[in-house]
Amino acid sequence: MTSPFRHRVRVQYIDTDQGGVVHHAAYLRFLEQARVELLRARGIDYRAFEREERTAIPVAEARVRYRRPCFFDDVLEVETCVGLINRAKLRFDYRVWREQDEVLTAEITCACVNLDRMRICSVHPRFREVFG
Fold it and tell me: Is 116 an annotated catalytic residue?
């Protein structure tokens, strides 16, 4: 497991439902933001990586445990690390906090895909170098 990376997200009004609670799908966007920022912090510009290496890491599986509701204007701290790298996938592990309250835990598994063939491929050496 790699060292955790922290990313802050402020809940926007659009992220909430009619009851004022953050909609469950909004959390997936927060996790994706944190994942992209983790890559950026480790020297991988994901947009450039996809273009230059012709490799992507789309989400293959998402496991999310919602622990406490969040609301408009809450500031959330998303802690992200790479918990697993195997032949063709990476698993990102998350813990989301609002102040001292853990509000969510998640595991997002991303498969490595060759964009030219649209087929699963081995994890790119750059990911192994950075997270291995």
Answer: no
